Amino acid sequence: MAHCRVSFTGSDGTVHLVTVDADSLYEAIGLAVAEFRADKLTETPGPMTEFTVAIERPPVEHRIRFIQVAKWAERTAADGPAGMVKRQRVKDLPKPAAPPEMPIILGTLLYIGCFA
Predict the structure, then answer these.
(1) How far is Cα 70 from Cα 111, in angstroms, rounded to an integer?
(2) Which distant-in-sequence residues (6+ apart) come within 8 Å of 68 by Cβ?
(3) Per the count of CB atoms within 10 A, which of 5, 67, 85, 110 is most buried?
């Protein structure tokens, strides 16, 4: 079952939105229409009403130390040309000013510490 935000724009331009739990897009819209009909402040959607369904997934969190980013950016052709392009994109990012006591990693790109 997914947590879904279902919305539509009424004839006056007002966006109406409700959150439902459903197993399919069609079920989400059916449940949402029932909610919209039950709400006296919401325009009743018609047969040609276009709905937007946004599925809300649980957030994913990753923790990576900055030194790991530096090591990753230094790898060579392990992932082929696409991997090399991704790494080069990170290497080409503007470098922040580092405090004098901070050692420089990669010569021109990464510093140990936090970005502001």
Answers:
(1) 9
(2) none
(3) 110
